Automatic annotation (TrEMBL), chain A:
Domain CheW-like, chain residue ranges per copy: 21-213
UniProt-listed Pfam families: CheW
GO BP of this protein: chemotaxis; signal transduction
SUPFAM superfamilies tied to this protein: CheW-like (SSF50341)
Annotated SMART domains: CheW
Protein name: CheW-like domain-containing protein
InterPro entries noted in UniProt: CheW-like_dom_sf, CheW-lke_dom
Organism: Desulfonema magnum
Ranges annotated as spanning the membrane: none
From TrEMBL, chain B:
Record-given protein name: CheW-like domain-containing protein
PROSITE patterns listed in its UniProt record: CHEW
GO cellular component terms attached to this protein's record: cytosol
Transmembrane segments: none
Organism of derivation: Desulfonema magnum
Domain of life: Bacteria
Cited InterPro entries: CheW, CheW-like_dom_sf, CheW-lke_dom
PANTHER family (UniProt xref): CHEMOTAXIS PROTEIN CHEW (PTHR22617:SF23), CHEMOTAXIS SENSOR HISTIDINE KINASE-RELATED (PTHR22617)
Record domain CheW-like: where: 1-134
Pfam families: CheW
Protein's GO biological process: chemotaxis; signal transduction
Length: 216, 250
């Protein structure tokens, strides 16, 4: 990998390894196979299956929620999240896919005060539209913090990705060329991508997991 | 996180269980009697099975309840399929939904109860009222309208208008090429695999599907059936086997 500060760590062992898996997109869409790439530090677990509970009215790329090691974790499709055309979607895909990957977002995750306000207000049903469309929140800092104790995301926030077979671990460095995101037409939501790299087997895509987790 | 106990009312909508803060529940009534007596004339009543797209046919009509919920500022009624009871849980068992959820999903289900490796979404009644659903926003004082997505409803009307409704199989000799192509185009253009499967499953269950539709749907669903051992595949195979046996006996 030429340059990517996202994978910079103090542990030289982890710096040398990345995990990739193929994206479920038509190859003719990008003129090559698209892969998603994560540092081994981001990948906490790979499991075969789990029971997923759909959440009504959620975005189409969110399959639902599940329990992983006593935590409630969302299960999503990265391809659909980024607006990419997916070759398999719906219940057929969910039976075809063989693995679920737990991705840790950050060592410590936090929401901004505005983000907390929005969640607390929703929970209380105090969705108060005001003039100009700006919501009116009436919670104190103590009330906001009480709903989001630090231990809720202790050790980092997590997302579970449903992926197809073909998960691989590669050693760095990888010979590849970074592409300008503007030229990557097959990813509509470029703001959710940190970078795309062209390599001998196709394209390596690095997702912006923090933005994805915050629902941007 | 404190270890205080919290009381929740658990209820069923279709085959799913949900929860609600008990202090928000003002009263619970038998649905049929409540509606007949017009007791909730000034209270908006929301049919959760329709709003959440859940099939409530497996529940006995007598078990359906209307819960009047709210606080001093608002009241609304929620029609559910079954009220399971009250549970006392610790706050530690209640988790916020991930920030990845937003909009209606977060408004309606901001929290989830984690109980014995099982997840139960906790409903925020105010979120139901604030839903802005284009084709299913109820009038303030009426039950929620049928929640079938417009495309599927239109397709039902299309099929009925085209004499593909409930004729006995023997009456349909062979499909006209134009009708078959139109239907194929309709399916491919307007329905994704999930909606199609759900729609066809219901049609098959109601035994309103004709031979022609079965042939078309079998072709369209061929790929998903070969990959997925699901209800549609089983029902189709069973019906085809029954039909073959029936024809053989004639």
């Amino acid at each position: 990998m030429q340059t990517n500060n996202s994978f910079g760590t103090h542990n030289s062992k982890f710096e040398q390894k990345v995990i990739i898996f193929p994206a479920l997109t038509p190859s003719q869409l990008s003129c090559g196979q698209v892969f998603f790439l994560f540092s081994v530090r981001q990948v906490e677990d790979i499991i075969k299956n789990t029971s997923v509970h759909p959440v009504p009215f959620s975005s189409p790329y969110i399959e639902g929620i599940t329990i992983w090691r006593d935590q409630v974790v969302p299960v999503i499709s990265l391809e659909e999240c980024m607006g990419m055309e997916s070759t398999t979607s719906g219940s057929g895909f969910r039976l075809l896919s063989t693995r679920l990957i737990i991705i840790r977002i950050l060592p410590s995750f936090s929401l901004t005060d505005d983000e907390k306000n929005e969640k607390v207000s929703s929970a209380h049903g105090d969705i108060l539209p005001t003039a100009g469309g700006k919501k009116n929140f009436s919670f104190t800092q103590e009330e906001r913090d009480a709903f989001f104790p630090a231990e809720e995301y202790e050790g980092g926030a997590r997302i579970m990705l449903r992926v197809a077979p073909g998960i691989r671990m590669l050693s760095l460095p990888i010979s590849c060329t970074p592409l300008p995101l503007a030229s990557v037409e097959w990813i509509p939501k470029k703001e959710l991508v940190r970078g795309v790299y062209e390599w001998e087997e196709g394209y390596l895509t690095v997702a912006h997991m923090e933005k994805i987790f915050k629902g941007h | 996180m404190t270890n205080e106990q919290k009381e929740l009312l658990l209820f069923q909508v279709g085959n799913r269980q949900f929860g609600l803060d008990l202090p928000l529940v003002k009263s619970i009534h038998r649905a049929k009697r409540f509606l007949e007596q017009g007791a909730g004339e000034n209270i908006p009543i929301y049919d959760l099975s329709l709003m959440l797209g859940q099939d409530s046919s497996s529940h006995h009509p007598g078990s359906k309840k209307i819960m009047i919920v709210g606080n001093e500022e608002y009241s609304l009624g929620l029609k559910v399929d079954h009220v399971d009871g009250v549970v006392s849980v610790s706050n530690e068992q209640i988790k916020w939904l991930s920030p990845i959820f937003k909009g209606p999903s977060l408004n309606c289900f901001p929290r989830v109860l984690k109980q014995n490796n099982h997840l139960i979404l906790l409903l925020n009644p105010k979120g139901i009222e604030s839903l802005n659903m284009e084709d299913r926003t109820p009038d303030a004082e009426t039950l929620c309208p049928e929640l079938r997505p417009p495309s599927i409803q239109e397709e039902c009307e299309f099929m009925e208008a085209d004499s593909l409704e409930t004729r006995p199989d023997a009456d349909i000799k062979s499909p006209s090429p134009l009708a078959e192509n139109d239907l194929q185009l309709l399916f491919k253009q307007h329905i994704d695999s999930e909606k199609l499967e759900s729609f066809l499953t219901q049609m098959i269950d109601e035994e309103t599907i004709s031979d022609m539709i079965m042939r078309i749907s079998a072709r369209i669903l061929e790929e998903s059936i070969t990959c997925e051992i699901g209800k549609v595949g089983e029902i189709l195979r069973k019906r085809m086997a029954e039909k073959s046996l029936k024809n053989a006996n004639k």
